[in-house]
Structure formats: C-alpha cells, structure tokens
Amino acid sequence: MEMNENAMKMAQAMVQLELKDDSPKVPRKTVCGKVQEKLGTFSHPEGNLQTDCPSHDSICSNCGCSNANCQDMRRRTRSLNAPSPIQQFGPCGRIMKNSAMVMTIQDPASQRLTWYKPPLTVLVIKKVRDVSVLQPFVKLVKWLIQEKSMLVYVEQSVMDDTLLATNPSFTVVKDKLMTFRDGKDDLTDKIDFIICLGGDGTLLYASLLFQQSVPPVMAFHLGSLGFLTPFEFENFEDQVTNVLEGHAALTLRSRLRCIIMRKNEETAKDAKPPTNILVLNEVVIDRGPSPYLSNIDLYLDGKLITSVQGDGLIVSTPTGSTAYAVAAGASMIHPSVPAIMVTPICPHSLSFRPIVVPAGVELKISVSPDSRNTAWVSFDGRNRQELLHGDSLRVTTSIYPVPSICAQDQIADWFDSLGECLHWNVRKRQKHLDELSDLTHSSSNDTLDSLEHTDQIDS
C-alpha cells in the first residue's frame, strides 16, 4: 500500500524533530528487552542467573546495580555445565533456530541416583586369581542374601574356584547364588545393581557385559591401582545401604561405539553383521607385529583430517584419558566433559600433538591405500582384530554411558584418584628462606668466592 502525501509529510516532520532534538534519548526497548521486563530473572536450580541480552547492560538481580564488578553479579553457581552462549550477535546476526536440534543437557553436579522401584537383583564381580578378594567377596555375598534378601548373580567361574569351595561361610549361601556364563547368557533386564570387588579391570568387565543400558555400578577398591574404584571395603554395610536407599551421586562415564566395516562384507548379500563393541576406556589401532610404521587415515565426519605415521593411534573417552592415553602424552579430562580424545602413539612427527574433538562427531579410521602393512585394533585391551586394506573402523559416542556411583561427588572422587593413584603434582615443598641456614648470613650481592673465603676464615 502506497503512503499518501499527508502521511509522508508527517513522517518527514517527525524525522526532522528527532534530528534537531538535543535532549537525552531514552533507549528503545528491543524485543529481548521487553521479554526481560516481563520475565525478570531466570530461575535456575543452583541459584539466580540473570538473562543476558547483547543490546543492554546486565543488571544485578540482588542490588539492582549495573556494575560488572558487583560481587553479586560475579557469584558463580556450582554448575558443571559450560555457560550457554548468547545466540544473538550484534543487532542483526543470530543462530538459526532448529526445533530438531533443541535439547536439554542436565548439569552433571545434579546427577543423583534414584530408584523408581526397590532393587532386587545384584551382580557381584570380583577380581580373578586374587586370594585377598575371596574373604571380602564371601562376606559381601552372605550379607546381601541374608540381610538384604537380594538375588545375587555371580559368574560361573567363581563357583568353580577350589578355594571358595572349601570355605565354610561360602557353602552356606552357595546354593542360593545365580550364575551366568560370559558370552552365552544375556543379563539384559535381569540386573538392577552391580558391585565390583577389585581394581579398574572389574569395572571394564562390567562395561563389557552390558553392551546397552548399564545398571548403576558401585566399585570397591581391592585391586592394584583403583583409579575408578572410589569405595573402601571396611564399612561396606553402611555404604551399600546408603546406595540402596538412593543417597548417592553419579558420574555418567561416556563410552565409545566402535563398528568395524569389512571391505568384502559391505557388498556381500549374506555378510555377517559388523563388529559392534562399546568401550569404556579406549580403542587402540597399532601396527601389531609388523616392523613398519603404521600408516592410518583419520576422518572426522567424512573429512580427511590427517594420516597417522607412527606406532598407532588411541581414541579414548574422558574416562580413558587417565589410562593408556595419558601414558602416551595426552591431557587428563574429567569424565563429565563431553569429548573424544585422539592421541598418536610415538608419531614420526614432532608436531603431532594429541587433540580433543567434540563428543558428537564420527571418526573413521582406515589403513592408507599405500600402507606397507595392515593394522590391529583392540577394544579396552580385548577382542584384538586385524584391520585390512579397505576395512574401516567407525567410532562415535554411545548413548549408553556407565553410571558410576560416587563415594563423595564427581569432583572430589576424581581429584582424590589423581592424587592417590597417579600422584598428580606431588613434589617436595620448596623451603622457606628462613629455613636455609646458609643464606641467612649472606646477601643477594654475595658471590660464591666471598662465601668460600668466609668459610675459610671461620675454619
């Protein structure tokens, strides 16, 4: 619709008045500002967070000031999530809204264990070939059956242990135990709760047993290292009772979904289903027994990133960053960080450093066409297979994490393990100057010759 002459003259007059007016302007409210005025502050479970608008100064919700140095505005919450980025850039630019990509990420600090029905079945995994674990195992199983009236599952190989067969306390409850065989019996939807007795290997074995949804895992430290086993066995009755009542924090340890695509099986009609394994620590691609360098192509979301020439490659979860990866020079990442680590093993390049990529990408690893040899793949140290020319390994983050029960919380447990197991940043404290007797009588201008001359005079 065209504007008539009267409307046009009125608009021109208003523009001229605005140009001539020297009075202070009141900034017009944008749509974002009007919404802020209606909603006020955003309610957050960990505290009050002020909604941010890129077109206006932030205003403190407690005292009403707009000073960026205000103590109330700089107060941090206990959230382990990164702050959500502002989605508007300048007056015009913003992120395109896509309803299919909208998701809610729960704060890891608020992840608590809850039972929507009382747990009735428990799987007890103990360290094999370790006599010191037998007595705690018998004590725990007997207590679970007699005091908690729970149905206890153990591996069949445990029942065949000759040392347990001669234990009088074990013979009392032996007939009440349920058994399974690894690779033959399916435990899906049969286990409510898992208790591990031993080292980190018991937790890795629990991850291997459950290739989809994993029941909550409570790991007791009865092994060698115990980085992933935060509980001590001395007062196990109180600790297990506390967990069964739902009073525990959880660390959701992400896993990697690894699929091997064989060259011949991709086109064959009667091909076997591809190898599909979930790993908790890492998948390792190495040169195996070959004396030649590995020559491996690394793709990220279909794009060739680099070719790895060296002994191999480690693709690990944040949980696995403190295992093989850290020994190969990678950084240590908290298990609540959504990421995938890519670490070369003895690369034939001084500039090839470990990298961290987003958890949502897909990695494809294949033997380079001009490679002199094949490669070998292992999953959490198991199921070692050869990767031939034309084969590929696809790695993504699985939707099935391992819910590891915390002894304290996600932060305290991790840093305690760093200090106790890896002796992270452990060294002798530097002495204070007052404690150095040889420096108390000298100044900073004294030379070594003058100090030696003084020693000779004193002698």
Which structural traits does this protein have?
Rossmann fold, Tumour Suppressor Smad4, eleven-stranded antiparallel beta sheet, 459 residues, 22 strands, alpha+beta
Task: Outline the fold blueprint.
Layout: H1 5-20, H2 31-39, E1 42-44, E2 47-49, E3 88-89, E4 93-94, E5 121-126, H3 134-146, E6 151-155, H4 156-159, H5 162-165, H6 168-173, E7 178-180, E8 193-198, H7 200-209, E9 217-221, H8 236-244, E10 250-253, E11 256-261, E12 275-279, E13 282-286, E14 294-300, E15 303-316, H9 324-327, E16 339-347, E17 355-358, E18 363-367, E19 375-379, E20 382-387, E21 392-397, E22 402-405, H10 410-421, H11 448-458
Parallel strand pairs: 5-6, 5-8, 6-7, 8-9
Antiparallel strand pairs: 1-2, 3-4, 10-22, 11-12, 11-21, 13-15, 13-19, 14-15, 14-18, 15-16, 16-17, 18-21, 19-20
